[in-house]
Amino acid sequence: MKTTNRREFIQYSTLGILGLLTAGGAVLSPYLKADNLLLRPPGAVNENDFLALCIKCGQCEQVCPYHSIELADITQGLGVGTPFIEPLKRACYLCTALPCVLACPTSALNHLAEKPEDVKMGVAVFKYSNKCIGISTEKVSRKNINKIYEHPHKNNLENKVLEKLENYEDKQCTICADMCPFPNSILAIEMIDDSANNGKRPKINSSCVGCGVCAELCPSSAIVIEPRLSYEDYYVNGKRNNKL
Protein backbone atom coordinates (compact mmCIF):
# COMPACT_ATOMS: atom_id res chain seq x y z
CA MET A 1 0.00 0.00 0.00
CA LYS A 2 2.79 2.34 0.91
CA THR A 3 4.59 1.48 -2.34
CA THR A 4 1.49 2.33 -4.36
CA ASN A 5 1.13 5.67 -2.60
CA ARG A 6 4.77 6.46 -3.23
CA ARG A 7 4.42 5.65 -6.94
CA GLU A 8 1.31 7.80 -7.21
CA PHE A 9 3.08 10.66 -5.45
CA ILE A 10 6.04 10.48 -7.81
CA GLN A 11 3.76 10.18 -10.85
CA TYR A 12 1.61 13.19 -10.00
CA SER A 13 4.59 15.24 -8.81
CA THR A 14 6.36 14.63 -12.10
CA LEU A 15 3.26 15.55 -14.10
CA GLY A 16 2.91 18.69 -12.04
CA ILE A 17 6.50 19.76 -12.66
CA LEU A 18 6.18 19.09 -16.40
CA GLY A 19 2.97 21.09 -16.43
CA LEU A 20 4.65 24.04 -14.76
CA LEU A 21 7.59 23.89 -17.18
CA THR A 22 5.26 23.74 -20.16
CA ALA A 23 3.18 26.63 -18.90
CA GLY A 24 6.29 28.64 -18.12
CA GLY A 25 7.65 28.01 -21.60
CA ALA A 26 4.39 29.10 -23.17
CA VAL A 27 4.46 32.33 -21.22
CA LEU A 28 8.14 33.07 -21.75
CA SER A 29 8.66 31.94 -25.35
CA PRO A 30 7.35 35.13 -27.02
CA TYR A 31 9.79 37.19 -24.99
CA LEU A 32 12.68 34.81 -25.60
CA LYS A 33 11.99 34.90 -29.29
CA ALA A 34 11.76 38.68 -29.40
CA ASP A 35 14.97 39.18 -27.43
CA ASN A 36 17.05 36.58 -29.24
CA LEU A 37 16.51 37.08 -32.96
CA LEU A 38 19.29 34.93 -34.35
CA LEU A 39 21.18 35.20 -37.61
CA ARG A 40 20.04 32.10 -39.47
CA PRO A 41 22.00 30.22 -42.16
CA PRO A 42 21.58 31.04 -45.85
CA GLY A 43 18.16 30.30 -47.30
CA ALA A 44 16.32 30.38 -43.98
CA VAL A 45 12.60 31.00 -44.50
CA ASN A 46 10.76 33.52 -42.29
CA GLU A 47 11.35 32.91 -38.59
CA ASN A 48 7.97 31.40 -37.67
CA ASP A 49 8.07 28.97 -40.60
CA PHE A 50 11.72 28.22 -39.91
CA LEU A 51 10.97 27.22 -36.31
CA ALA A 52 8.10 25.04 -37.51
CA LEU A 53 10.05 23.34 -40.32
CA CYS A 54 13.47 22.85 -38.74
CA ILE A 55 13.79 19.34 -37.26
CA LYS A 56 17.07 20.20 -35.49
CA CYS A 57 18.95 17.49 -37.33
CA GLY A 58 22.20 19.47 -37.43
CA GLN A 59 23.05 18.45 -40.99
CA CYS A 60 23.63 22.08 -42.04
CA GLU A 61 26.13 22.45 -39.21
CA GLN A 62 27.95 19.28 -40.23
CA VAL A 63 28.49 20.29 -43.87
CA CYS A 64 29.50 23.92 -43.28
CA PRO A 65 33.14 24.12 -44.43
CA TYR A 66 33.87 27.22 -42.34
CA HIS A 67 32.34 25.93 -39.10
CA SER A 68 30.06 28.96 -39.15
CA ILE A 69 26.87 27.24 -38.00
CA GLU A 70 26.06 26.53 -34.37
CA LEU A 71 23.03 24.88 -32.80
CA ALA A 72 21.11 27.00 -30.31
CA ASP A 73 21.07 25.97 -26.66
CA ILE A 74 18.74 27.13 -23.92
CA THR A 75 20.62 30.42 -23.52
CA GLN A 76 19.48 31.45 -27.01
CA GLY A 77 15.83 31.15 -25.98
CA LEU A 78 13.20 29.80 -28.33
CA GLY A 79 14.32 27.22 -30.87
CA VAL A 80 16.76 25.07 -28.91
CA GLY A 81 18.65 22.91 -31.39
CA THR A 82 18.02 25.17 -34.38
CA PRO A 83 21.00 26.42 -36.42
CA PHE A 84 22.30 29.96 -36.21
CA ILE A 85 25.44 31.96 -36.95
CA GLU A 86 27.27 34.20 -34.48
CA PRO A 87 29.20 36.48 -36.85
CA LEU A 88 31.62 37.78 -34.23
CA LYS A 89 32.80 34.18 -33.74
CA ARG A 90 32.60 32.93 -37.32
CA ALA A 91 30.59 34.49 -40.11
CA CYS A 92 29.09 32.88 -43.20
CA TYR A 93 31.48 32.91 -46.16
CA LEU A 94 28.77 32.43 -48.79
CA CYS A 95 30.01 29.18 -50.27
CA THR A 96 29.30 29.01 -53.97
CA ALA A 97 27.10 25.90 -53.75
CA LEU A 98 25.54 26.75 -50.36
CA PRO A 99 26.04 23.22 -48.96
CA CYS A 100 24.01 24.01 -45.83
CA VAL A 101 20.94 24.61 -47.98
CA LEU A 102 21.49 21.41 -49.95
CA ALA A 103 21.79 19.44 -46.71
CA CYS A 104 18.51 20.68 -45.21
CA PRO A 105 15.89 17.90 -45.48
CA THR A 106 12.82 20.02 -44.73
CA SER A 107 13.22 23.28 -46.67
CA ALA A 108 13.66 25.25 -43.47
CA LEU A 109 16.56 26.44 -45.61
CA ASN A 110 14.83 27.15 -48.90
CA HIS A 111 16.32 25.12 -51.75
CA LEU A 112 15.55 27.95 -54.15
CA ALA A 113 18.60 29.67 -52.65
CA GLU A 114 21.24 28.24 -54.95
CA LYS A 115 23.97 30.89 -54.96
CA PRO A 116 25.24 33.78 -52.80
CA GLU A 117 23.11 36.32 -54.65
CA ASP A 118 19.98 34.45 -53.48
CA VAL A 119 20.89 34.77 -49.80
CA LYS A 120 18.94 37.15 -47.52
CA MET A 121 20.26 36.67 -44.00
CA GLY A 122 20.21 40.27 -42.79
CA VAL A 123 22.09 43.52 -43.33
CA ALA A 124 25.35 45.01 -42.06
CA VAL A 125 25.26 48.20 -40.01
CA PHE A 126 28.25 50.48 -39.46
CA LYS A 127 27.13 51.18 -35.92
CA TYR A 128 30.26 52.19 -33.99
CA SER A 129 32.03 54.70 -36.21
CA ASN A 130 33.97 55.97 -33.18
CA LYS A 131 35.75 52.58 -33.03
CA CYS A 132 36.63 52.29 -36.72
CA ILE A 133 40.39 52.49 -37.28
CA GLY A 134 39.92 52.87 -41.03
CA ILE A 135 38.50 56.35 -40.52
CA SER A 136 41.70 57.49 -38.85
CA THR A 137 45.28 57.13 -39.98
CA GLU A 138 45.82 54.27 -37.51
CA LYS A 139 47.32 51.17 -39.07
CA VAL A 140 46.17 47.59 -38.62
CA SER A 141 48.23 46.05 -35.83
CA ARG A 142 49.16 42.45 -35.17
CA LYS A 143 46.87 42.57 -32.15
CA ASN A 144 43.96 43.46 -34.45
CA ILE A 145 44.62 40.39 -36.56
CA ASN A 146 45.38 38.01 -33.69
CA LYS A 147 41.82 38.07 -32.38
CA ILE A 148 40.73 36.15 -35.49
CA TYR A 149 43.18 33.37 -34.64
CA GLU A 150 40.95 32.58 -31.67
CA HIS A 151 38.21 31.49 -34.08
CA PRO A 152 38.14 27.88 -35.31
CA HIS A 153 40.64 27.11 -38.06
CA LYS A 154 40.63 23.48 -39.07
CA ASN A 155 40.97 23.41 -42.82
CA ASN A 156 42.55 25.10 -45.82
CA LEU A 157 39.63 27.45 -46.45
CA GLU A 158 39.78 28.82 -42.92
CA ASN A 159 43.54 29.18 -43.03
CA LYS A 160 43.27 31.18 -46.25
CA VAL A 161 41.22 33.77 -44.37
CA LEU A 162 44.14 34.24 -41.98
CA GLU A 163 46.63 34.45 -44.82
CA LYS A 164 44.65 37.26 -46.43
CA LEU A 165 44.32 39.12 -43.14
CA GLU A 166 48.06 39.10 -42.59
CA ASN A 167 48.50 41.24 -45.70
CA TYR A 168 46.82 44.15 -43.89
CA GLU A 169 49.30 44.41 -41.02
CA ASP A 170 50.79 47.94 -40.80
CA LYS A 171 48.45 49.18 -43.54
CA GLN A 172 45.33 51.33 -43.54
CA CYS A 173 42.31 49.20 -42.70
CA THR A 174 40.00 48.30 -45.58
CA ILE A 175 39.41 44.74 -44.35
CA CYS A 176 35.62 44.83 -44.20
CA ALA A 177 35.23 45.80 -47.85
CA ASP A 178 38.13 43.80 -49.25
CA MET A 179 37.22 40.55 -47.51
CA CYS A 180 33.51 40.61 -48.29
CA PRO A 181 32.69 37.25 -49.96
CA PHE A 182 29.73 38.54 -51.97
CA PRO A 183 30.39 38.28 -55.74
CA ASN A 184 31.39 41.74 -57.00
CA SER A 185 31.63 42.80 -53.37
CA ILE A 186 31.52 46.55 -54.05
CA LEU A 187 27.78 46.06 -54.59
CA ALA A 188 27.54 45.03 -50.93
CA ILE A 189 30.15 47.17 -49.17
CA GLU A 190 32.86 49.63 -50.17
CA MET A 191 35.27 52.07 -48.58
CA ILE A 192 34.65 55.76 -49.18
CA ASP A 193 36.75 58.80 -48.23
CA ASP A 194 36.21 60.30 -44.81
CA SER A 195 37.75 63.71 -45.35
CA ALA A 196 37.03 64.89 -41.82
CA ASN A 197 39.34 62.23 -40.39
CA ASN A 198 41.78 61.73 -43.29
CA GLY A 199 40.81 58.09 -43.65
CA LYS A 200 38.16 55.86 -45.20
CA ARG A 201 34.89 54.53 -43.84
CA PRO A 202 32.76 51.56 -44.91
CA LYS A 203 29.56 52.21 -46.83
CA ILE A 204 26.98 49.43 -46.88
CA ASN A 205 25.33 49.01 -50.28
CA SER A 206 22.07 47.52 -51.45
CA SER A 207 23.37 44.01 -52.27
CA CYS A 208 24.50 43.32 -48.70
CA VAL A 209 23.04 39.97 -47.57
CA GLY A 210 24.12 40.08 -43.93
CA CYS A 211 26.65 37.24 -44.10
CA GLY A 212 28.60 38.85 -41.25
CA VAL A 213 32.15 38.58 -42.59
CA CYS A 214 32.68 42.33 -42.25
CA ALA A 215 31.55 42.12 -38.61
CA GLU A 216 33.75 39.11 -37.84
CA LEU A 217 36.93 40.49 -39.38
CA CYS A 218 36.56 44.15 -38.37
CA PRO A 219 39.56 44.83 -36.08
CA SER A 220 37.50 47.12 -33.83
CA SER A 221 34.03 45.52 -33.94
CA ALA A 222 32.59 48.66 -35.51
CA ILE A 223 30.12 46.71 -37.68
CA VAL A 224 27.17 44.65 -36.48
CA ILE A 225 24.54 42.60 -38.32
CA GLU A 226 20.78 43.12 -38.18
CA PRO A 227 19.29 39.64 -38.74
CA ARG A 228 16.22 39.18 -40.92
CA LEU A 229 16.27 42.72 -42.30
CA SER A 230 17.12 43.74 -45.84
CA TYR A 231 19.02 46.82 -46.98
CA GLU A 232 15.70 48.41 -47.92
CA ASP A 233 14.17 47.55 -44.54
CA TYR A 234 16.97 49.19 -42.59
CA TYR A 235 18.34 51.98 -44.75
CA VAL A 236 15.22 53.03 -46.66
CA ASN A 237 12.30 52.21 -44.39
CA GLY A 238 14.08 52.67 -41.06
CA LYS A 239 13.00 49.31 -39.69
CA ARG A 240 14.84 47.97 -36.64
CA ASN A 241 14.91 44.74 -34.66
CA ASN A 242 14.17 44.74 -30.94
CA LYS A 243 17.82 44.16 -30.20
CA LEU A 244 20.96 44.90 -32.17
From TrEMBL:
The keyword ATP-binding does not apply. Keywords: 4Fe-4S, Iron, Iron-sulfur, Membrane, Metal-binding, Transmembrane, Transmembrane helix. Residues 41-74, 81-115, 200-228 form the 4Fe-4S ferredoxin-type domain. The chain crosses the membrane at residues 12-32. It comes from the Bacteria. InterPro entries: 4Fe4S_Fe-S-bd (IPR017896), 4Fe4S_Fe_S_CS (IPR017900), PSI_iron-sulfur_center (IPR050157), TAT_signal (IPR006311). GO terms for molecular function: 4 iron, 4 sulfur cluster binding; metal ion binding. This is 4Fe-4S ferredoxin. It comes from Arcobacter caeni.
